[in-house]
Design brief:
2 helices; 90% helix
């Protein structure tokens, strides 16, 4: 261990004491609240705070407008999609109706063909019966 050096210790104590005294003096010489320099700094801080608040309000307004624009675009897109879906459903319904009409027409044609065949068969039967009776 080193030898205790009292001169250095005394120097450290005195420099610490001087630093504390300087700090206390600095605090004592603090300007009053109504000092022009203090008032100027307060006004500067107030102006900065107001500018910051104004920028924040503008930013919030821009964000709100962006959200509103996005909501309008979404509503327009959904309306277009709904209209396209309605058009698609209408087209499907028309196709169903056309298929049903074709099915009914085909059924009517089959019934008419069967009726014509039956009429021809009945005519042959009546002709055969007339030949048998008459002959």
């Amino acid at each position: 261990m080193g030898k205790f050096n009292s001169a250095n210790f005394a120097d450290r104590i005195s420099s610490t004491s001087a630093a504390k005294k300087a700090l206390v003096e600095k605090l004592k010489t603090r300007p009053a609240d109504d000092d022009p320099e203090v008032l100027r700094k307060q006004a500067e801080r107030q102006a900065i705070a107001e500018a910051r608040a104004k920028r924040a309000a503008e930013k919030e307004e821009l964000r709100r407008l962006q959200l509103l624009k996005e909501a309008e675009e979404k509503a327009a897109r959904e309306a277009a999609e709904a209209a396209a879906e309605l058009e698609r459903l209408a087209q499907i319904e028309l196709e169903k109706q056309a298929a049903e009409a074709a099915r009914l027409e085909r059924a009517a044609r089959i019934l008419a063909d069967e009726a014509a065949r039956k009429a021809a068969r009945d005519a042959r039967y009546a002709a055969r019966k007339a030949r048998v009776k008459g002959g």
